[in-house]
Amino acid sequence: MKRIALLVPKGDVMPNAVIGAYFLLTQANYFLMLQGREPIFEIKILGYKKHMLLYDGSFSVKTDSFKKAEQVFDLILVPGFTCEMEEPIRLNRKMIEWMKIQHLQHGSELASMCTGGFLLASTGLLRGKACTLHWAFESSFRKMFPDVDFQSDSITTDDNGIYTSGGAYSSLNLILYLIEKFGSKDIALMVSRFFQLDHNRKSQKPFVIFNQQKVHADLEIQQSQEYIEKHFSKPITVSDLAGSFSISRRNFIRRFKSATGNTPSEYIQRVRIEAAKRLIESSSIRMGELGPQTGYRDDKSFRIIFKKHTGFSPSEYKRRFGRV
Questions:
Q1: Is 97 helix (H, G, I), strand (E, B) or coil?
Q2: Are 224 and 150 part of one and the same domain?
Q3: Most buried one in 95, 227, 236, 309, CB count within 10 A?
Q4: How far apart are CA 96 and CA 123, in angstroms?
Q5: Is 154 inside a domain boundary?
Q6: Does residue 20 share a domain with residue 63?
Q7: Which residues contact 242 (CB under 8 A, 6 or more apart)?
Q8: Residue 13 — pLDDT band, cuts 50, 70, 90?
Q9: Residue 40 — φ and ψ, nearest 5°?
Q10: Range with the lowest mean pLDDT among 144-153, 190-199, 231-240, 245-254?
Q11: Is 211 within a domain?
Q12: Model confidence at 69, in pLDDT bands (50, 70, 90)?
């Protein structure tokens, strides 16, 4: 029997992360019992007090105190939040330290759902390890934890007993993964089929909406970003951008990367691919017109770059997300 602690930290916790994880794990036990097999998960919900309020008090979760939990757990699950993460990290210092002790002294494995990865990284146990969470928080996570191997495309990561997952409801893919790892593949497949979850989804790429990364103080880099966003359909070179601000090419690239997290060339590509995605989603544009309208003169190069950023070819993306 695998002993699992499902945490309810302080802060704006996502109710679906707590309820969804608990429900899938208990249903895995139920499906096992239907087959005449023993349940494999013993789940305890732990928080700071008897009742933890979620979603501005709309929901209440009954919990035991993690500070009084004498049982050693095989796995500790951390839910995600619906807010920026500075406040939850400040509010949950005691829980963060407790997780660290459980892992180092008792060998408990740790798993985070969505932005719960911020709390997990705050233990210091993610240094040099793979991690993922919701793509919208990539920039703030990288700035806060630069020594973590952030894998923005992944739905789940597994690095020596520490697990993380992508955002929102894709956290349920992590729960399926854990059911398979700690239980069996047939039960994980049964849970995925019954609840109609895509067991094979591996990448966040198709769901990423590019954030223009302007939360920085470098005015000249902001101006160059605005130029790229207005003129992405035309030829743009890094040398021309740097020259327009009388900055050396090398220094311009360094400053751009420092401010945005992307090189100028990467940023140009991401702006163009985001424009192509929007055209596919909102218009009846022909596939042969996409490249020229978004700054690509070579159709093959466009298709390669599009698939790199979305996980799909333009035609596949249209079948999934295009306007009907």
A1: helix
A2: no
A3: 95
A4: 6
A5: yes
A6: yes
A7: 248, 249, 251, 252, 253
A8: very high
A9: -115, -10
A10: 190-199
A11: no
A12: confident
**Beta strands 59-62; 51-54: pairing state:** antiparallel
| CA pair distance 21, 6, nearest whole angstrom | 8
Pairs from 95-104 (Cβ < 8 Å, separation ≥ 24):
95/7, 95/9, 95/10, 95/48, 95/66, 95/119, 96/122, 96/123, 97/123, 98/66, 98/67, 99/7, 99/123, 100/124, 100/125, 102/72, 102/73, 102/76, 103/76, 103/161, 103/162
Residue 177 has pLDDT above 80, yes or no: yes
CATH of residue 248's domain is 1.10.10.60
Distance, CA of 249 to CA of 251 (rounded, Å): 6
Q: How far apart are CA 201 and CA 170, in angstroms?
A: 9
Enter the tokens of residue 30: 């139920």
Q: Which residue has the tokens 């544009």?
A: 285
pLDDT (0 to 100) of residue 206:
56
The answer to whether 99 touches 120, Cβ cutoff 8 Å, is yes
Per-residue model confidence (pLDDT) at position 205: 54
**Is 44 in contact with 71 (CB distance < 8 Å)?**
yes
188 with 227, same domain: the answer is no
For the sheet containing 41-47, what is the strand order? Answer: 64-65, 41-47, 2-7, 75-78, 109-112, 162-165, 156-158
H-run or E-run covering 3: strand 2-7
Note the pLDDT of residue 74: 94
Q: How far apart are CA 212 and CA 226, in angstroms?
A: 9
What is the separation, in whole angstroms, between the first and last Cα of the chain?
49
Which among 161, 180, 205 is the end of a domain?
205
Contact 129, 182 (CB under 8 A): no
State pLDDT tens for residues 237-288.
999 999 999 999 999 999 998 888 889 999 999 899 988 988 888 888 888 9
Are 223 and 199 in a shared domain?
no
Q: Can you give the length of the chain in residues?
A: 324
| 151 Cα distance to chain centroid | 9
